[in-house]
Amino acid sequence: MSGMVIVGAGQAGLQTAESLRSGGYTGSIVLLGDEPCAPYHRPPLSKGFLLGEVSDTQLYIRAPGALNRKGIQWHASARVMRIEHATRTLHLDDGSTLGYTGLCLATGARARRLEVPGAGLGHVCMLRGMADTRALAAILPHTSRVVVIGGGFIGLEFASIARRLGKQVVVLEAADRLMARVVSPQLADFFLRLHRDNGATIELGSNVSALSGNRGVVTAVHTADGRVFPADLVVVGIGVIPNGELAQQAGLACDRGALIVDACARSSSPGIVGAGDCTVRQRAGSGLLRLESVQNAIEQAKSAAASLLGEHRPYPALPWFWSEQYEVRLQMAGFAAGHTQAVVRGDLATSTFSLFYYVDGELCAVDSINRPQDHLAARKLLELGRLPTPQQAADPNFALTSLIPA
Fold first, then answer.
1. Runs of H (alpha helix) within 74-184
2. How many domains does the chain have?
3. DSSP characters for 297-363?
4. Dihedral (C-alpha) 228, 230, 232, 236: value to the nearest 10 degrees?
């Protein structure tokens, strides 16, 4: 029996399924996941899970029983190999086929692998899925010298956890600043100080050339300039690759492996939508944009479900994101890329401030460090277009909420 099929049982896939049902769809909904476990939250994997603050059961977004009660047929360890457009049929790796009326591709992304000699040694770990984290959790108690390759969010979140566990930590970042792709120089400098103040060694401009080991287990990381960093655990966090192979095989419009969708999550083919980390969308004035966040996955999935139901529901253009490192909570709203002015609200020398970013005098983004009130106000102001001037943002006595209509 044909119905709605979602390929990918992560945050975006699950949200699509649930939004279809809550949107009034009464037909068959099949959710295909390539992992053996039920849909789970990914953010805690690089945060509280490794500290024992989050249990396995707390990771699950929904238990299988809850999906069944909603009439969502969840299939674990199911891999789709091919989409046949003409007959609206999916071909699975076990030889079975599955027809669909509407299809959502929510295949996510996978960790980018380190391509250097020795990358396949034991105790070289990724941190993307539950299997990765469980493997890392089993190794971590028996190690003391940790090298993190990559100074992005995942690498730095893990570095902060390793330091809290008393490990010696070295972070090797190829760029000249931390999180260079996503945060401003001012914020990068703050996190550099934060990690160094907490005892981590941060090495910028460091390109890894090889890993060496003994008896199949890593013992050192080598950089292109000849330095050697001893290690009994290496964690690689150098970005992700969208799982776009299925979309490409189906002849759907893609960009650098990611499925291109519009503001309503529709692909280039009628009846097929996409949501989450496997997609890229058009952003006014700046070309194609790929967002990797829970918020984007959820909102895009709601739009994808609406499109499958024949409705028009563009998803919100404003992204927001968070990261936790040591005792610091970073909350981000908007797009800071290309800003021409950064205004500080608070004191950069403390762990409580916000950075307001402007393009030609107009607010485009706000990054907040331990100031949730600023973050919540900024999200609302950016959504409404009620933007504070740089002078208002810099004034700690100015109430940002005064710009929000009652």
1. 130-139, 153-164
2. 3
3. HHHHHHHHHHHHTT---PPPS--EEEEEETTEEEEEEE--TT-SEEEEEEETTTTEEEEEEEETTEE
4. -40
Q: Concatenate the DSSP letters of all residues of 249-265 into one string.
A: HTT--EETTEEEE-TT-
Domain ranges, residue 208: 113-236
For residue 1, the model assigns a pLDDT of 55
Of 236, 263, 284, the position where a domain reaches its end is: 236
In the predicted structure, residue 354 carries a pLDDT above the cut 80: yes
The percent of residues in the chain predicted with pLDDT above 70, rounded, is 99
Look at the alpha carbons of 243, 248, 252, 256 in this order and tell me if their dihedral is positive or negative.
Answer: positive
What is the spatial distance between Cα 90 and Cα 82, in angstroms, rounded to a whole number? 6
Cα–Cα distance, 292 to 240 (Å, whole number): 9
pTM for the whole structure:
0.94
Please say if the pLDDT value at position 285 is more than 70: no
Structural tokens at position 256: 């650098």
CATH number for the domain harbouring residue 289: 3.50.50.60
Give yes or no: residues 166 and 138 share one domain: yes
Q: Considering the domain boundaries, does residue 314 fall inside one?
A: no
Predicted pLDDT at 286: 64
Judge whether 302 lies within some domain. Answer: yes
